[in-house]
Amino acid sequence: MIKQPVPTVSHSSSTVTQDPPQIKDSPAVERALNRSKIYLLISWSMLYPEDDEFLDYLRSGEFVEDGRGALGTLEAMLGGHGGQRAVQALGAIKKQFDQVESLVASECASWQLSDLQAEHRRVFSNVITLDCPPYETLFGNDHVFAQSHVMGDIAGFYRAFGLELSKDIHERLDHLSVEFEFMHFLAYKESYSRCHDGPEKTAIVVEAQKKFVKNHIGRWVPLFCRMLAKKADVGLFKLMADVTAEWIDFETAFLGVTPQPYTETDYRPATFNAPEGQTYECGAQDQGNELSLLLNEVGAQSFMEIKEKEQDHGNAGPVGTA
Fold it and tell me: How far from 118 is each of 46, 111, 112, CA to CA, in Å?
């Protein structure tokens, strides 16, 4: 969903070699890169498998291997960030990856693509299931008008970083996989910014992560994970529900944010009746979008304007398509 160009490096014709620049905060870069990896693994695992690519990744053992590697590096580089709660969450996720490995060895190793697709349909169905819908706007919004406002805010985050939904992905902006890939991109962008940009640009990316976790995934994903674990009961998606729940616990501790998570009573299918005494305007308003507020808070222009200026000077960071 997100395509990131490989940075090109120009070499001088001089025979004099120079030592590579020292990264100011290598542990912070490693934390960002490996958080990015975990977000990507979870994102990929929740998508409907259109081809053999994810299944091959799972059966080969690389899915578990990459997850363990990222978790191990995070644990080694944590440096007290997130406190004991973050440490405990990482430990729980490592045990869950052990269970994924056992499942792959005992069941998934012999799967064909049709088996993985059937398991996905069993849990998520062919239409939007009300048992565990992987869409943010179905949580905490009584009315479709509120859903549209939340969807507009999500779209505002994506636009602020020059991202749009890939035509190859047949999902909505508020699908868990899309939101998690956005967080993958932000964490990856943070690692790049820490190496190449100044503190102001790094602060924008870090604060964007905090706001998106606090006001979006940190609110609805914990309830979704409980619903998914109940619906799946056993198998790959039950384990990934547990992984995802612990990962959100880690992230909220690591980022130091306190979302107000939805409860079972907050999950109600939306109606088309406007709230009494309220009118509706399409989409999120510019002043109400969280990224607009964030950019104003740090005294920055929109990320797209920054990106255009960087491109003019040949110093653009990674951009892509969500």
Answer: 13, 11, 10
Tens of each residue's pLDDT in the chain, 322 residues: 544 433 322 333 333 334 444 455 699 999 999 999 999 999 999 999 999 999 999 999 999 999 999 999 999 999 999 999 999 999 999 999 999 999 999 999 899 999 999 999 999 987 676 788 999 988 876 555 677 888 989 999 999 999 888 777 678 899 999 999 999 999 999 999 999 988 999 999 999 999 999 999 999 999 999 999 999 999 999 999 999 999 999 999 999 999 999 988 877 654 434 444 443 333 333 333 444 444 443 333 344 344 444 444 544 444 444 4
Domains delineated in the chain: 26-312 (1.10.3480.10)
Structure tokens at 227: 């619903």
Q: What is the DSSP letter of 217?
A: I
Residue 217: Cβ-neighbour burial (10 angstroms; 0-12, 13-18, 19+)? buried
Question: Do residues 38 and 187 make contact, with C-beta atoms less than 8 angstroms apart?
Answer: no
Asked if residue 23 lies in contact with residue 29, where contact means CB atoms within 8 angstroms, the answer is yes
CA distance 99 to 164: 35
Q: In whole angstroms, what is the distance from residue 145 CA to residue 150 CA?
A: 9
